[in-house]
Amino acid sequence: MSFGFLGIQFGFALQGGFMSRIFQTLGADKDAIPFLWIAAPLTGLLVQPIVGHLSDRTWHPRFGRRKPFFFVGAVLSTIALFFAPYSSALWMAAGALWILDASINISMEPFRALVADKLPDSQRSYGFVVQTLIIGIGTWVASNLPWLMTWLGASNTAEPGVVPDSVKYAFAIGAFVLFTSILYTILTTEEHPPEDQAEFEKERSLNTGFLAGFGEILKNIAEMPKVMKQLGVVQFFSWFAFFTMWSFATPAITSHIFGATDTTSAAYNDAADSVGTYLGTYGLVSMFYALILAFVASRIKINRKLLHLVSLISGGIGFILIYFITETWMLHLCFGLVGIAWASILSMPYAMLSGSVEPKKMGVYMGIFNMFIVLPQIVAALGGVNFLYKLIFGEAVINTMLLAGTLLILAGLSNLLITDRRATHD
Rounded CA gap, 344 and 234, in Å? Predict the structure, then answer.
């Protein structure tokens, strides 16, 4: 039931690892890159709770509850992912990113809810960790695709304003994997009908129409569990940090470590491929870390809060070390530490939250919870990253990695706010 996340992560990894490269190729200044990302989190702010609300109130004897959303999101994501590297102007690339991110979210949030739908509370840590394991595989493979295409003979340079063929082929492969993996989950996963069909139909009939649905979402936001608010602080710092990485890893590392800034040069494009490979390392490490967590969570009770705290601080140290390394191979170590944080971010908050949410509202609350993912990205895109890294650390773009590390350490310490034992202990 989680196999579709392989494809979703292909989309996210290619988006996170190479959209800034596409923006730079099309002439974007480094300080403008975060703003070009803003449409994606803005759309997520609206799409995620609405899709969650609708999926909670959807049921079809043949197509199920969550699977119709998987399919719609897969079709739209595939189209956007394939055409993104063919953009000939910045506004086209930003638009492709907007459609891609919104479409992936249509599929992703119902996937989170599906795990909570089908597993009892005692197995949810295990379930979300297995999901993270699949995400790690997708991140590593997708992040290495441009390098692999170059190795197989695809051109890694192009005329000014044109994305190299190696990136175009990588995005095409990613689009294929995204669609087929989600389709596999749709065809092989059975969903359970509502326990009380009559009560389900009654509630659905009372919440028809846009205004009624919007009002219900606002009511759920006002009544969100205390644990969700506490986790929201952790999520804010965590996703601000990762948005900083996705926006600035390529310009920061290619210029600071490889000394390459000319986007038409082989040196820059080879360095950008290498950055993708290093980003793949955090996916690979997250996979192994998730595998260990899956083994542990299936056998003993774990303290989710302390585990998440340590994992996030490890990732923060990894980001900070990027500034100080002297050899390129050390980037694998840095992003390996980031991978520990990434594995935890994709599993522990959802496991902590799921035990505090009514099952019939799982979809809408998973969507609302993701507001704490998109809000920090919006703040970062509207100038938060540029303002903070220059104010605290200085003008050099590599200082964005120092900012990301500091924020991730703050995210780890914020776990101390969580006091509900039902959330923190498996």
Answer: 12
